[in-house]
Amino acid sequence: MIKVLIVDDDKLVRKGISSAMPWNEFNMEVVGEASNGLKALDFLKSQPVDLMLTDLAMPVMSGIELMRAARQLYPELHIVVLTLHQDFDYIQEALRLGAVDYIAKVQLEKEQFEHVLHRIHTRIDELANRKQKQPLLSETNVHYRHVYALVSLDRKLGQNWPIEPTSNGEELRWEIERNSWMWAAPMDVGDQLFQRLKESLNQVHQSALLIISDVQERTWSQIQNWIINYTETSLFYAYDPDDPVIAVSMNVDDSLPIEPQDEDMDRIKQSWFLSPWPHNDSYYNQLIEQFKSLRLHKSQLIGLLYSIVMEWNHLFAQTKLGRISMSHSFLSWYEVEAWIKQTSVGIRKADVQTSYSQEIVDAVKKSIIIMQNDLDQAFTASSLSRQLNISRSYFSQCFKDLMGKTFNEYSRFIRIEKSKEYLLNTNNTIFWIAERVGYTDEKYFSRIFRELTGLLPSEYRQLGRGDKKRTLL
Question: Which domains are delineated in the chain?
């Protein structure tokens, strides 16, 4: 019996999935529920679980963080992602943390329950069968000088064997995971194997050839796990399509990224929004180095980029400063840097078209970020213009022209937008929310809220939460 844990911060969603799906028909049993990642880890410590279904967006510990921790602590655990997104390609590519499948909650209908569980059960069986085929080789010590790994960074495309082993039987090959292969041969034929693998690189989409040293006296299983970890972390940064042959040592343990601190992530966001990096090579290089120095796991990096793009478009998409677009997937840092450079070109074009000096455009951007970061403060056009060393009248004129709203209109707009988030995602009082968005008078806040939305805050909360539950169920 496959024991199942369901992790989602919405109780109704947990209960709905637990009770509605035909678990018994697929030899599955729901043994527990958890409302966030920390509680899920506590449950995993207390009793065995074979399959965990987890939401991505949760308080306390997100689904991404939970997956990362669970994979290290419980490598045999199968994970399925619950998501609100119908197009999951980019999320699946971003996570790459071992999820065997995903469930799009907006598409969950009764007639699909059986299909979803059948798909998950089939995938679990495939992984179990693959593991059963490997025991004799997996625990054998390696005595070769090098092990080679031919790895495609694109896991979506099916690939045939790029080359066949020689007929003399001296070469060994091993499928690591989809689109990844491990090869080894005695020293006297190792050079020939290397040349054949190198020539095969153009047969495998966006591939790299790893020459792995210091493999002696390690088991095939250890080497295989090391290659998987390296592929999902360091290779993302090391890959260069112009030089796809990479020499690495198993003694250099750089396969695990450094866990980033919140202040590191905030520093990058501040650089993106407040420094003139699209217009200045020095600032551009600083931004690139900030990204690279964190050595974020690919899922973390893409999550950070998505948050930057979403925040930028939330602030500027409807203004003369323009929107930016996000690629649905990145296979390497090489592609990320190309996207950043392309984005800088788009930002420069939008800035030039405003007819204002770059100094003024940057000042308006900075004023918006200041306001967004401190919504509980009572900013005025006068105070911000003094802070930015611009005359009040000229600042107000530029602000309205670039943002499409007067300073006061924009100030009210962003405060009410933030209050909507609080109303839907917290249980805090209306007074608490009013204070957090800069209103000390609850009645005045409610009046402004109603003017802009047509609803009182309490009515908006009730209506919005009702819609959310209907969507999830």
Answer: 2-132 (3.40.50.2300), 135-249 (3.30.70), 408-472 (1.10.10.60)
| Residue from 212, 241, 206 nearest 228 by CA | 212
Q: pTM for the full model?
A: 0.63
Helix residue spans in 102-219 (DSSP H): 110-132, 135-138, 187-199
Q: What is the pLDDT of residues 90-135, one digit of tens each?
A: 454 435 556 666 676 655 655 567 777 887 887 777 666 655 544 4
CB 348 within 8 A of CB 278: yes
Q: What is the DSSP string of 4-15?
A: EEEE-S-HHHHH
Phi, psi of 460 (to 5 degrees): -65, -45
Q: How far apart are CA 327 and CA 342, in angstroms?
A: 11
Cα–Cα nearest to 159, from 100, 201, 130, 220 = 201
Amino acid at 150: L
